């Protein structure tokens, strides 16, 4: 089972364009101002790097989330220890690269992601590994998949639809524990 979120490229295109325009403008002004061009050139460089980063990260990158069986059969007939959650990243014209692969038997919670969730998880578990695999700068709805991998808390943030979230949630053990 696969899911590829549709990016909202409007925001990232706007932000990267603004940053690149600011880079050009500050570089032009650095050539006009004869006394201290270095600060303006540094601003130009920072804006250019940030603009390129935003374009590459949010415009030219896509993610595919998938549930894969470890032995090649349908995932719907398998227990959680035989299924892996995978995230593959495609950037530009390069082929997909597996960024993340975790066993579904390590999944403890599936919940909507909010800004306070990371600090709540750090308080409860101590160390937290947090990974954002979203394709939009400002996604409308994000979900957090929380894994316990040998005592280490891993939080994977994804953009997905309700059907995929429900499928992921079916692998969570039925307990009353809060995050």
Summed over residues and divided by their number, the pLDDT gives a mean of 87
* Biggest sheet statistics: 4 strands, antiparallel
Taking all Cα atoms into account, the compactness measure Rg is 21 Å
Share in β-strands: 25-35%
Strand order within the widest sheet?
1-2-3-4
Q: Overall 3D geometry? A: elongated
The separation of the N and C termini measures 26 Å
Topology pattern, helix = H, strand = E: EHHEEEEHEEEH
Helical content stands at 25-40%
Poorly predicted sequence stretches spanning 5 or more consecutive residues: none
* Secondary-structure content class: alpha+beta
Query: Total helix count?
Result: 4
What is the number of strand segments?
8
The structural domain count equals 2
Explain what the structure shows:
- This protein has 179 residues and is α+β, with helices and mostly antiparallel strands.
- The chain is built from four helices and eight strands.
- It has two domains: 2-59; 61-169, no CATH class.
- The strands form two sheets. The protein has a four-stranded antiparallel β-sheet with strand order 1-2-3-4. Strands 5-7-8-6 form a four-stranded mixed β-sheet, sandwiched between helices.
- β3 and β4 form a beta hairpin.
- The longest helix has 24 residues, at 9-32.
Tell me briefly what this model is.
The protein is an alpha+beta fold and 179 residues long. It folds into two domains: 2-59; 61-169, no CATH class. The chain is built from four helices and eight strands.
